[in-house]
Fold this sequence. Notes:
single chain, Rossmann fold, globular
Amino acid sequence: MRRRRFLIAGLGLLVAGLALSLAAGEMLTRPARAHVGPPPPGLQAESLRIPYGDGQHLAGWFLPGRSGQGAVLLQHGVRGNRLQMLARARWLQREGIASLTVDLPAHGESSGERITFGRHEARGTEAAMAWLRTRLPGEKVGAIGVSLGGASLLFAQRQPELDALVLESVYPTIVDAVQDRLAMRLGTAGAWVAPLLLVQLPLRLGIDAEQLRPIDAVAGVRAPLLIASGTLDLHTRWPETERLFAAAVEPKALWPVQGAAHVDLHGFDPAAYEARLLPWLQSHLRKSPP
């Protein structure tokens, strides 16, 4: 009788675990729709709708800059939208650098059926880069990608290659990302739950864990690269950021943001962020005088 009770209890826990993992998989991959609306009053910006693929589109804002100062594509993190990058866009415009900030596929006001952790979002990234180069022919083009936005830039076909690339808080592999998040909530038990989430990738998204490895894609970057992350980030732990950096080729730079967790690094310390990134961006995006 006791063994039977243990068996029933075990089966009950298994069923409950499966149900919770399925619910979590649905929550993590469903679209993050949000009404963003027009640019804020007083902002010198143009609202855009960039078509790509088979009837898909990106919503975004273009902020013009000064000739010869370059342009930057700004890409937000998971379940965010272009408002997350607005402060960066304002700062860049003050410095004369144009920017394009978009809602990634399945986010904000852009189309898209599922969040795919950068793999399918890369198609939208490619469309955004192409639009920016067409709008500003002759200007050097860089990009800043936060978390999902950075992974999308790595998975994208960057042809021609960007002139500068900033990656902020980007996970090295989806296995690391899932295990880190589960460990924050479940402790060591998270390692047992992770496979229940990872096995859903092919079923929900048509991709597997091997296709979600930014650490492999970063080795193909030929742009000057700056990788930044918070030293207290538990979503993407600092040793994981060091692994991502080690996999990249020169020229590259690493910026540990002391005391920051998995937060908006610009919002965490705007003065330090701008002081660190502005000269780096200008050195790669400014046109040389004739």
